[in-house]
Amino acid sequence: MAAIVATNLVKHFSPDIRAVDGIDLDIPDGQVFGFLGQNGSGKTTTVRMLTTLLRPTSGSAHVGGIDVLSDPDRVREVVGVAMQDVGLDDIQTGREQLTLQARLFGISAAETRRRVEQLLDVVTLADAADRLVSGYSGGMKRRLDLACALIHQPRIIFLDEPTTGLDPVTREEVWRYVERLNREGVTFFLTTQYLEEADRLCHDIAIMDRGKIVAKGSPADLKSSIGTDRITLAFASAEETLQANDLLRGFDGVSDTAVTENEVAVYIRNGAAAVPGVVLALADAGLSVGELRLAQATLDDVFLRATGHHLQVDRKAETPAAGGAS
Questions:
Q1: Which tens digit of pLDDT belongs to each residue from 125-155?
Q2: Is 2-218 a CATH 3.40.50.300 domain?
Q3: How many CB atoms lie within 10 A of CB 273?
Q4: pLDDT for the residue numbered 140
């Protein structure tokens, strides 16, 4: 049985605001599925519909085999959700927050104590369990929010950009925990802006842009679909960039080009051998290259070719709260 199925799922907030514009999903049990896209692409709106927090305009969706429209209460019993905006009570301790979450799911007092202690160890918050959440750092709050999503032992977990704003060490801790739970059979639906996160964790990914899925497949298959190396060339002006793009589109071995600001990305067979000819052709046309970079295709190239722009990510590390430690 598929863990998550959506058919022609749509959410329009107005005739002009089409947050999700007819997407199809079929995610197997036990998979880490990545939803990749910029802020505003429709990722979070999709998660809100699949977790019964938002009613679709049209289409259908089943999570854990349960219809999200006709039986939302049962859907909530089988899923765990950690949204991008951490929903914690600052006037409770970490232990109290987890205990409350467990009791809301009807878990017995004895089992609650066992699960709370286990999860505090798993998310490395045992030493801070009896401190107020208001004194937690951003990374600690993110880990506690994840523990709250796991307290009822769901088999499907939705993580909406779980590592955005975290420092690299905390991000690695979250990644390792996702990998551990997935090995135990838990299915993850992971939205992210981090290409390395999708590449490392996800069995399959879908790229969202302006409410639509524009590419789908495993990270390896999507990268291999590029089938070429990438030469990135920087120029002094937008005019030179466009001239270079027009020239290189017809260059031997070029499968595609993409323009971003004052750079041209050239997808070409055997890039190392092609570099001298590319530079000579540009020089003959009176175009001077300010910078040249050669690389193999990455998920960023997949994203660029699918959407026409690079994935822009806010990479600010978290700032610990007063008295907090990540």
A1: 999 999 999 999 887 888 888 889 889 989 9
A2: yes
A3: 11
A4: 86
For Cα atoms 211, 172, 177, give the angle at the middle one, nearest 5 degrees. Answer: 85
Residues of the chain with CATH 3.30.70.100: 228-296
The label of the residue with tokens 């999570």 reads 63
Tokens representing 316 are 């600010």
Domain 228-296 sits in CATH 3.40.190.170: no
From residue 153, alpha-carbon distances to 77, 101, 111, 175 in Å are 10, 12, 12, 18
> Boundaries of CATH 3.40.50.300 in the chain?
2-218
Say whether pTM exceeds 0.70: yes
